[in-house]
Batch of 2 targets.
Target 1
Amino acid sequence: MSAVSLVTVAPEHAQPRRAHWFRQASLMAGLAIIAIVLFMVIAAPLLTSYNPDLQNLNVTLQGPSAHHLLGTDQLGRDTWTRLLYGGRVDLQVAFIAVLFPFVLGTGLGSLAGYFGGWVDMAIMRLVDIVVAFPFYVLIIALVFVLGPGERSIYIAITVVGWVSYARIIRGEILVAKRQEYVLAAQSGGLSNLRIMGRHLLPNVVTQAIIYAMSDIVQDILAIVTLSYLGLGIQPPQPDWGTMIADGQNFLTTHWELTTIPGLAVVVVGLGLSLIGDGLADLLRPGQS
Amino acid sequence: MGRMSFVFRRLLLLVPVAVGVTIIVFFMVHLIPGDPARTILGVHATPQRIAILHRQWGLNRPLLSQYWLFIDRLFHGNLGQSLIYGQSAASLISGRLPATLWLIIYSAVLAIIISVPLAMIAASRKDGVRDHLVRVVPLLGLGMPPFWVGLLLQLGLALSLHIFPVTGYGVGVGGHLRSMFLPSLTVAIALSPVVIRSLRASMLGVLGADYITTARSKGIPGRRLFVRHVLRNAVIPAVTVLGINIGFLIGGTLIVENVFAVPGIGQLMIESIFQRDFPVVQGITLVFGVLVVLVNLLTDITYASLDPRVRFDR
Amino acid sequence: MTGPVAGGSVVGGPVLGGSVLGGSGPVLEVRDLHVEIATRRGVVRAVDGVSIDVPRGEAVGLVGESGSGKSMTLRAILGILPPEARVTAGQVLLDGTDMVPLPTSALNRIRGPKLAMIFQEPMSALNPVMRVGWQIAEGPRVHLGLSRSKAAERAVELMRRVGIPDPERRFRAYPHEFSGGMRQRVMIAIALSCEPEVILCDEPTTALDVTIQDQILRLLSGLCRESGVSLLFVTHDLPVVAELCQYLAVMYGGEIVEQGPVAEVFAQPMHPYTLGLLRSAPDVEEVRSSLVPIPGSPPSLITPPPGCRFHPRCGFAEADCQVEPPPLRLLTGGRATACLHYERCEESLEAEEAAR
C-alpha cells in the first residue's frame, strides 16, 4: 500500500530488547488503545443487548439516550450496537486481509533479493506495473470485476498490497545476504531454501512486521472506503463505511451518524500507528 | 547533452511498464470465470449488450489475437464503446478529464503549502515541543478515511458556514478555484501525513549537513542561508517524496470526486461500475495508469534538473 | 588555574609570538576557553581551559589525537558549535574584541572578512547544487557588497591563485566534478575570498592523498607568506606541522599540554605525551630508532582522571602527578609545558642517544 512512503534505512540487526519493550511509550499507548478496542468489539454481546440489524421504525434518528447510548439511525437501529458489530467485521477482515499480501510479498521479495538476476528483474517489473496504478483505482476495478463482497476484498488487497512487502524484504535481503552468517551457511552446503527460511528471513522479517502495522490501517481505510461506495461489505452486515454512507443523507441534522464511525477508524488507526512507531523505535535505537 | 539522453533513457524504461499496464487492464476482463460479458453485465445483461461486448473484445478469438486487437484499437485512440451512453468511451473520458486534472494539481499545490511549513517547523528544532506537535499529525492523519474528512469539511465549511459550494465544479477559473477548494483540501490532508514525515526527515538531513556548517562559517546571514543553501537542497528529496506519493494522490481524487460530485473521471468510474459499463471502467483504469506513469516521468525529469549530480550518473 | 608554581609563571596571558618576537600583538588570542557538550551520559568537557595565541602572519599548529578537543576549539572560536555544545567560560579575542558574547548577526560580519575556516571533508563541505564559482563569490557579494560580475571576476582570480587550472571554465562546474585536492583548493579560495586575517584549518589534508597533501600544504604556506594571513592549523599528523607551522600547541584530553616554536619542540619535547607522539610518528626530522605507539586510550572527558590527565599512560608518572591538574607553565624562549617533571623527557632522549 504505497500511501506510506518507504524510507528504509540500513538495518541494524539487533534483536528486540525484550527487557525494554514495556518502557516504550508509544508502543504501550498503542497496545493499550488496540486492546481496549479489541475488547469492546469482541465483547460486543456483553456491552449491548440490541441486534445490529434490528430495525425499529418508531425510534428513528434519535439522539443519545438511556436506551440508546449513541442514538439511532434512520431505520431505528442502535448506533452503539452497529458500531461494535461493525467493528467486528471491519477489524476481522482487515487483520486477515493483511496476512495474504504479507506472505506473498515476503515470499516474492525474498526470491528477488536472494537470487537476483532475472528473477529479481522479473519480479521488480511486476512491482513497477502494479505500482503504476493508483491504489484505490486498482482495488475498485478489481472489486468491480470480481463482484462486491468480502472475498473480493481479500483478493483485491492481496493483488495490490504484496508490492510494498516485496520491496522491503528484497531490500533487507540484499543487505543481509552479504553478512557472514549467510556465507557460512552457504559454504556449509545448506540448501538455498533452508538458508532463506531459517537464517535470513527471521532477521529481516521485523521490518515487514513494522510495515504491516501501517498496512492494517490502510486496509481498514480501504475496506471502509469500499463499503462507503457500496462495493465492500454488503448490507445487512454492519460496517463503519456503510454507516458513514447512511449518515451522509442526514449530515446537517444528525452529523453524529457520520462522525462517530469515522472517529472509530481514526482511533484504531492511531493505536496501530503508535504500535508501528513504537516497534520501529525499539528495533532501531536512536532513530526517530 | 546529458539531460536529453537522461530523459530518453527514462522514456525507454517506461515502455515495459506501459506494456504491463495494458496487459493488466486487458486481463481484467479475463479474470472473470464463465462468459465475461454476461458476468460483467450482470443484471443489465441483454442479448444486444452481450453481443456488443463479444464483438468489441473478439471473445471467440484466441487470447493473443484479442490482445493485439486491444492494442491496435488503443493506438487508434479507441477505448471501446460505452454500453450506456452509446458514445465512444474515449470521448466520454476526455470530456471529464479536465476536472480531474484540476483536482490533481490543486491538491498537489495545497499539499505542498500544508506540508512544507510544518516540516520546516518540526525540523528547525528537532525534538522540541513544536517538533512533537507536528509529529502527532501523521499519527492521527494516517487513520482518517479521506472521504470522511471530505464529509466533515463539507459539513463545516460548506453546509454550515456557506463559505464554499457543497458540490460541483463551478464555472470559469474563479468558480473552479472556489468549488474545488474543499475537494482538493481533502486530498491534500490525506496526503500530508506521509509527506510531512518524509520532508521532515530529509530537512533534518540537510540541516545537519557539512556544507551548511561551511556556509555558516562564511558568515552567510540567516535568510540567504536558508533559501540558497537549505531550501535549494531540501527541495530535491521533497520532489522525490511527492513523486512517490503521487499515485496515492491521484487515487484519492477518485473517492473525493464522489463525495463532492466533481464531474471528473473518478466519478465517471464509480457511475460506470454501478451501471456495469465495463469498457468505460477499463478505459478509465488505463487512463489512471498512464497518468501515474507520466507524472512519475515528470518527477524524474524535475529531479534531474534540480540535482546536478544525477545527470552524470550512469 | 592554581597559583604560581616555582619554576615558571602560570600561563594566563599571551604566550607565543607577541612577547617573543616583539612585533604587534597576536591577531587571535584564546584565553581559558571552556566548551561543554551535553550528552545522555553526562557533561563532556571537550575543551577545558585552552589558551592559544596566533601571531600575525604566522602558522600555529594544534596537534592531538581525535577526541582531544582540537576541532571543538576551532568551532568555538568561530562560533559554529553543534547545538549540544556551548562555551561555558573564556574569551576569544580577535584584534582585541571578545567574540564569545557576540550575537550571531555580529559574528556573521566577522566570519569571512576577518576569520575564515577550511574543513576536512571537501566533498561534503561544499554545497552540491551550487556552482563552485558562485560559492567562492558568495562571501564577497555578501560581505564586500560586490556586484555579480565583480564578484565573479574575483572568484576567477582566486581560483587561479590557488592553482585551479582553466578557472574561467571551471567557474561553472559543480563540486562533484572536481577531485579531492581540487575541492580543497576551492575551499581555500572560499576562505581567502574576503581577505581574512586568520584562517582556521580543521585537518584539511587528512582526507587527501599524500602527494596532494604536499601540494596543498605548499599552497597554504605560500599564501601565508605572501598575504600575511595567519593560520591555526589543527591536525593529528606531526610531519604536516613540521612542514607548515612556526609554532605548535599540543592538546590532550581537552587541555593544552605543551607549546612552543616547532623546531624546538621537536628537538626537545617537554611533555611525555609530545615525546610519545614524536616516537610514534614516522618521517619526522629527528627520526627515532623505532616506532613506538603510546599505550592506553584517550581519557574520558566526562570524568577525567584526577591530577594530570595523561598520567595513566605516562611512563614518567609519579605520585604528585595524580593529585592536582598541573597548570601550563611558561618557560624561557616561548616554551610552555604542563608536565611537572618535564626534564625526564630530555633525560630519556639523552639515554636513547647514548644507547645508539
Target 2
Amino acid sequence: MKTDKIYNIKYVDAYYSYAKSIDQTKLSVHEAHGYIERNADNIIIIFIKKGGANNKRTIDEKENIVKGLIIPDTALVSVVDTYQTDVLKNITTGLSVVVTWRDVVYVANLPRYDCSVMYTEGVLFRIEKDHIVLKNPETIRTYPSPIKNHPGRGLPTYLVIPISFITDITITK
Amino acid sequence: MKKLLDENNPENTLVRVVLRGDDNEEYECVGVLFKEEEDMVRVVFNAKDDKVVDYLDIKRSDIISINVLDPSKIEEL
C-alpha cells in the first residue's frame, strides 16, 4: 500500500478586518505539516487520520477527514509569488464590485475534499501585487450548499483576498 | 517516557504520533512537538506568522508510539 507522504506547506489565506480604518495590508504566511493529497485544484492537508488510513482511499470512499485543511492550489506561497492573471484587467479602486473566490476550509470529521466558493460584494479599496482589499464586504458562501452568510457573525469592515484566490470580478456600478 | 524536545535546539522537532482516541480507535498525526510535560505533549499542526493556530494536546497515557521525523525526509510545497 502506498504510504502517505508528510509535507511542510506554506500558504496564504484571505482574512477579514473589523478595524474602522486600515493601514498597510499584507498576506500572512501560514505554515502547516501534514499528510498531503491533491484533489483536482485543491490541496488537502490532513493533520489527524485514522490509524493506517490512506489519503487517496479516504477520498475515493468518501470517508471523513478527521482533522485537516483544504486550500486552493493557488494558495501556495511558491505559486502566489509568481501568479499571473488578467482577472483585474480594467478594474480600478473605488468601483463597486462582486468578487468570486475560493476559500481555505478547516475540516473536522467531515467528508470534504474541496474548497468553498465565496461571493463578495464590496467597494474595491486597494489593489496590491498579491492581494486586493474590499471595503464594507458582504460575503456569502455559495458552495457547498447550503448557501450562508460569511463570516457567521459580526460585520467586517474590510476583506483581504489573495489575487490567486479570485476566479471572477464583475463591476456592479 | 524519554523527552524528545531539545529546548536548546532552535529547529522544530517534527513528530509522528500514533494515539488512542476517546472512542478507543487508533489515530495518527504529524506536527511540531511544541510542549512536553509529565502527562501530556502538544503537537502543533499549523501556524500563522509563526503563531500557533491548531494543535492537539495528547495525554501520554493515550500515546501508542511517538517518533521524531528526519527533517530531510519531509517534502516541501
